Amino acid sequence: MARLNLWRWVVLALAAVYFLVPLAASVIFTVDVPGQGITFDAYSRIIGADGFVSSLLLSLELAAATIAVVLLLMVPAMVALRLGAPRLRPVVEVVCSLPLVVPPIAFVAGISTVLKWGPEHLSRTPLFQTFVAIQNPDFPFVLVLAYVVMALPFVYRALDAGLRAVDVRTLVEAARSCGAGWPQALVRVVLPNLRGALLNASFLTLALVLGEFTVAQLLGFQPFAVWIYSVGGSQAQLSVAVSVLSLLVTWALLLSLAGLGGRSRTASRG
Amino acid sequence: MTTVLTEAPADVAPAAADQQRRRRAPGWLAVVPLLVVVAVAFGIPALAMLNGAFTVKDQATGATSYSAANMTDSVQGAYLTALLGSVKLSAVSAGIATVLGLPLAQAVVTSRFRALREAVLTASGVLANFGGVPLAFAFVATLGNAGVLTTHLGLKDHGWNLYSFWGLTLVYLYFLIPLMVLTITPALDGLRSQWREAAQNNGATTVQYWRHVALPVLAPSLLGGLVLLFGSAFAAYATAAAMVGSAVPLVTLQIADAISGNVMVGQENVALALSLDMVLIAGLVMAVYLPLQRRSARWLA
Questions:
Q1: Are residue B26 and residue B81 in the same domain, yes or no?
Q2: ipTM greater than 0.85, yes or no?
Q3: Which residues fall within 8 angstroms of residue B127, CB to CB, at 6 or more apart?
Q4: Does domain A53-224 have CATH number 1.10.3720.10?
């Protein structure tokens, strides 16, 4: 037994070294600048850095819009699948898994081809205005559409797990026999029961959008991840400092997600 | 389960059926917006890619015609090197991550400390999602040319170069191993202690138990995880783009180059053909993964 425990600690220690050393080294890299000694200059420069605030805001706006759109699309559909249209379920499942088969880079290749049709073929049609509008650099809605598609598999899985845990049909029927209308039954009975799943789906989408680089960079927009990349070339310390911070933010987000998920799991068990 | 018990008695069944019929219409309607948005945001780009991959534009006349020339080009020369480079990198890093992730997951699953288990699984969830640019920069700061470890340990004199195949593999493991831990943990949880006890009672050693009981049961999950890791590494672009530029030939980097217009005129559609190649490989990955997952679910139910 002692031998077995030793083996386990060796494995865990090696894993800890591999996973912690790059983080520790990144922090050292940002505070121990050659020729300057220990300095926290890189961190204090972040706020004032050109484009930091605007790119972070853009990412957060994109995330909020993506979460709103994907939940508005998915929640009614998933609830309806449970209640009235079970035969559509395999269709929705396949549709929501398709994005897994198309890597982001292939997806963006397709999107940029479509966007090129705008100037090439549609310049005299009203559709052209739509093409211009969704590529507005202040708020590129085309990215929201892309992120909605990319988030579908995660949101589907999160909501499916949530719906599995509650008996939607009985809940809705109970609400209806107590005199609630359909919207009331949905908003005040079903949604509160799905709170954990909704939070889960929102956080996963948030993490996806904040870290997304491929689509945004290749379509020429500059949300947060692309901004980090663009400062990387000129200001190494600053870019690593931002990377460390963004890692910490992602950690905090996902840890709080795990905390919330854990709590809702125990709540449903009790 | 409870619905069976609350099923309406026979005499009110017509009313219930009536209600069902009325319900079906909104049921359909609620799914329609989702399908429409996916058709527009996903279907059109996918069809455009398919169309472009098989379209050739004549430079002289500007006329376009359908042909398989792009697809042929995409599996030749530099593009083939990139495709093979991607496959090799993904296969090697997924293989290593599978081999290393299994003992780590086993060490965590059999641990008596619940807190350790929770901590490692949560951390895995974070790290598996921590791909992209920050990961690349963290490793550049650690093991890059001016990285902390590189300078302090003098790794450069030993021929270390992060911007190479093995450097990239090392970085990919950072999110692949946690992904493996996440995928394999449910399977390891499904290994019943009775099986180990039965094997021990029959005189089997630990090695024999793993060789004849545990690994065969785990095999579908392990293979499924391996395939999933392969797909994840194969699709990764941000890390490689931020780290190596084009020092390692990868198909994602080639596609990105072509989209940004850094290629010869008339080669744009080869990017779409390459994308189609990627979709085919990713589709193959899924086609292998899903049956394996179903198979492992049968054992571990």
A1: no
A2: no
A3: A19, B174, B175, B177, B178
A4: yes
